[in-house]
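Ticket #4471: structure export looks truncated?
Reporter: QA, pipeline team
Priority: medium

Steps to reproduce: submit the single chain below to the structure queue and open the exported record.
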Amino acid sequence: MAPQKTLIHEKLDQASGILREHDVDLWLTLARETLLTKDPCLDLIAGAYCAWQSAFLVAANGERIAIVGRFDAPNLRDLGAYDDVIAYDESFAPHLLEEIQRLDPASIALNYSASDAAADGLTHGLWLTLQETLSGTPYADRLVSSEAIVNALRGRKSAEEVRRIRAAVSDTEEIFQRVTESLRPGLSEREIAALMHDEVAKRGLGYAWGEDHCPAVNAGPDKDVGHSSPSNLRLERGQLLHVDFGVSRDDYTSDLQRVWYALDNGESEPPADITRAWDALWAAVDAGADVLRPGAVGANVDAAARGSLVAAGFPEPMYALGHQLGRAAHDGGTLLGPRWDRYGTAPDGVVEEGNVFTLEYGTGVPGRGYIGLEEDVVVTADGVEWLSTPQRVLWLVAA
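Actual output as written to the record:
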């Protein structure tokens, strides 16, 4: 079986078990023209293009039914993951109602969520279509959010998923090493980004997020750090260079940050202000890693790291310690973050074995630039395994 098909079979097998865990009878994913409005769950359970309205039903008893347009049906049948692929011409609604009535679920989970974009793929138009389809039946009152189901399905990475993430991380680290060999004072952010783009092209890789700001490059103290494109700012002696970068390989991503210091004239090591910030950031990340294990609440993991950094005299970070990583750089589900309104209920999620997280904190150093740490880890039965090689030492640019 092709690797992509194998992954979909694995995730569908997981899905039925997760439904039983959450006492939900049926998970229903509705889709339409997927080049325009693609539900994030389709990559996990179908991996196929849909031109017409479609429905994918996964039942707690293990049944799987796909209702798709006639010309989409061959791809779904070739996948071999669904017990029945129903092809329609005029409307999928009668077939959907018939299958729901046959399965007679007490609860039907739909992909909507106020907190998790990965579980919020149901469009309002398809919601209205479903309401019309179920009108006059008891099933219209049995609809619930699939958030917990999707969170578990995306979060519990299989061995093959972890292997793919690990490979993407390895590629990213190799690119960082190759680019390090070419760094020198005077290079602009755009020139540094071009070096990385060349390495991505040589390897035939994709980008973990938009190419225009992947990598995000921050040279010196005059850049507003964030999701911005590289500029004409140049790396100068006595300044920091910070890069946030990830690749996509075999549909899975990496997300790492690395930092260099351009030695000033007469220097052989970083100055004390940079070393102090570096050590405090690593102490904070390690404090979070120490409590990251199955059963931990995301907000509590972040609090351990956040408290460490603030106690060391540095500003509180205005973002989370870590997000999940997988098919997307921000893969949804439990967040290692504070209980802020913008995060919804994601920080209240419980960490599970197999979750892959970033661990990232940063701070500015006045007159020098920005230090941002970011590593990738997988949660094991009793802690974490580092998928990346932690950058424990600040890299130096001497030429």
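Status: closed, not a bug. The export was complete when the record was re-opened. Leaving a note from the reviewer for reference: The two ends are 51 Å apart (CA to CA).
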